[in-house]
Amino acid sequence: MALSEPTLPLAGITPHRTENYRSDHLLVAEMVERGSRVLDVGCGDGDLLQLLENRGIDGRGIELSREGVNRCVAKGLAVVQGDADADLVNYPDDAFDYVILSQTLQATRQPRVVLENLLRIGQRAIVSFPNFGYWKMRLQLLIGGHMPRTENLPATWYDTPNIHFCTIKDFIQLCDEINVKMERAVALDLYGRPLRLSAPWWFWNMFGEQGVFLLSRAGKGK
Amino acid sequence: MKIIQSIPSPAIPSPAIPSPAISSPAIHTEERAHEADHPNSQIALFGADQPLKLDCGIDLSPFQIAYQTYGELNAGRSNAILICHALTGDQHVANVHPVTGKPGWWEVMVGPGRPLDTDKYFIICSNVIGSCMGSTGPASTNPATGKVWGLDFPIITIPDMVRAQAMLLDRLGIDTLLCVTGGSMGGMQVLQWTAAYPKRVFSALPIACSTRHSAQNIAFHELGRQAIMADPDWHGGRYADQATHPHRGLGVARMAGHITYLSDAALHRKFGRRMQDRELPTFSFDADFQVESYLRYQGSSFVERFDANSYLYLTRAMDYFDIAADHDGVLARAFRGIKTRFCVVSFTSDWLFPTSESRALVHALNASSARVSFAEIETDRGHDAFLLDVPEFFDISRAFLQSAGKARGLGG
User: Fold this and answer.
1) Which residue in B7, B127, B227, B332 is a FRET match for A68, CA 20 to 30 A apart?
2) A22 within a domain of the structure (yes/no)
3) Catalytically annotated residue among B160, B383, B384, B397
4) Is the peptide bond before B25 cis (omega within 30 degrees of 0)?
5) Interchain pair A3, B402: CB under 8 A
6) How many domains does chain A have?
7) How far apart are CA B254 and CA B250, in angstroms?
């Protein structure tokens, strides 16, 4: 089996790139302090991990697909096969400075438990997910009367691995419920470019194709 | 029934007398016996001042370690890789075998431009203590009696093998290994290295192995040992004094072992139900099927190069192996705070050391916050896949070593 062919986790569209790196990856990498320890859950082909390692960050990965894992390991990355629902429990508390969950939350069986685990294992978590409140999604359901399919989420309802979609608004609500502090939030457009920072939440929830959140544990008094 | 009807009336069909399953070895026996004391390898001798402290409580002294090296040690002594061989392997990784004349057992992996690149790395492989290719073992001469050790040789363990290797590295002036690698019993030694000498192992590549030997594997080993001990030529282990060798028993042990190294799919693909040089069954216990003929050949060729008592000792060492048991039953404790970089590899069709065993190891390493990669390679070739040409496995090994070398400041 050839290990050199890259596959993008986003099947339908070519993400926006800056100097060979995907813009959404650069945004995540910016949120991570140099010299820290990072676990990337659902690391795909390891593009983000490689970017982090190039920046002097000690990165590890978990990936569900065997092909993805083997491609990562063939790049010299420290990646193991596993999934967010089953395998995060094996990691001790505070094992990492950051745990990244990129475009994977909506495919987990128990998003809330996964989120809690991320912030148990890591001091901080960086979570990105497709925003189901994106205008194209709303329009397809409202006008077309069918489950939305977009360039980035081309699967039909009956064969999609994404079983827990949410909007940016829903996610913020969950963070409040489980006492998670949002340190930074960014909405990205279809190509992974950040939207205007000054935009209000409703605008992000309508025009953000995905949301990226830097989270930390709220104070000890919870 | 159809076949019987078509054969022109033999009065009473009686089974023909089968040819012996394992043919008697004649060619290599003397070379093998000679090799145990005077190997075609480099030798490190350890005298009375440097005994090997065995787990069974005995100090083994004197003893010798036979080893091979490939490539050049760099000035910083930072490019050394130790290969640990499997149960029936030896130190002849990438050179012609002195007894069989066959190529080295890991030439697909070791050599110029190969994943274990002899142009870049200094590669060492030593015969394990208890084996029969020049390191002290039951086939060696006991200096106290002038006779072959036989069953007077003390029981050895995987940690004993690793302790002896560490003494060899001290002798060679190598403090830290860039990598320790090996498959099967070799993988067990890799894990023992990381548990016993974590600071001396920069990276570890354990392949198709486990942190403990399973009940099923112990059972297969016991089958092999009983086959050897049931052979009248074994003579309670003192066959050297009688100038015999329990080749039938050892051959059967090898046949049983060999089945466990393959897979149902691989056997079916290779042999199916095809007949050996005939079209109809002979109605005898002769090797009608190709798979039988193949197994008999495996048994016969093995006994030419391997000592039966060594087989008993080394299988026992594997049976006793259980890293967690040495750490209050908690595997993660064996690797606490370890800085070694790990790459764990398993094969989908390996039922001797299945992926679940590797996964348990990976979980323990994660719990210790170790830097670990884990790749499961898809193949139908069973446990022996680690010895074969599996490109995906090579890609992964090569990249892991390159990344370890980079982290250690090696060029290229």
Assistant:
1) B332
2) yes
3) B383
4) no
5) no
6) 1
7) 6
Does residue A141 form part of some domain? no
Taking CB atoms and an 8 Å limit, are A72 and B373 in contact across chains? yes
Closest listed residue to residue A52, CA positions, set A116, A114, A6, A98:
A98
Going by C-beta distance under 8 Å and a sequence separation of 6 or more, which residues neighbour residue B277?
A: none
CA distance B350 to chain A (A): 16
User: How buried is B372 (Cβ within 10 angstroms: 0-12 exposed, 13-18 middle, 19+ buried)?
Assistant: buried
Three-class DSSP category at A190: coil
| Residue in chain A nearest B407 by alpha carbon | A76
Q: Which residue has the tokens 């990598």?
A: B179
Q: Inter-chain contact A90–B367, Cβ cutoff 8 Å?
A: yes
In a structure prediction context, what are the per-residue pLDDT tens digits for chain B, which is 412 residues long? 344 434 444 444 444 444 556 665 555 667 778 899 999 999 999 999 999 999 999 999 999 999 999 999 999 999 999 999 999 999 999 999 999 999 999 999 999 999 999 999 999 999 999 999 999 999 999 999 999 999 999 999 999 999 999 999 999 999 999 999 999 999 999 999 999 999 999 999 999 999 999 999 999 999 999 999 999 999 999 999 999 999 999 999 999 999 999 999 999 999 999 999 999 999 999 999 999 999 999 999 999 999 999 999 999 999 999 999 999 999 999 999 999 999 999 999 999 999 999 999 999 998 888 999 999 999 999 999 999 999 999 999 999 999 999 999 987 5
Of B157, B210, B212, B192, nearest in space to B334 by CA: B192
**CATH value at residue A197:** 3.40.50.150
Range of the domain at A21: 15-133+165-217
Are residues A70 and B396, on separate chains, in Cβ contact within 8 Å? yes
Hey, what amino acid is at B212?
R
Q: 10 Å Cβ neighbour count for B370? A: 23
Among A3, A66, A80, the residue to mutate for chain B (most B Cβ within 10 A): A80
Q: Is residue A81 part of a domain?
A: yes
Relative to beta strand B52-53, strand B59-60 is: antiparallel
In a domain, A2, yes or no: no
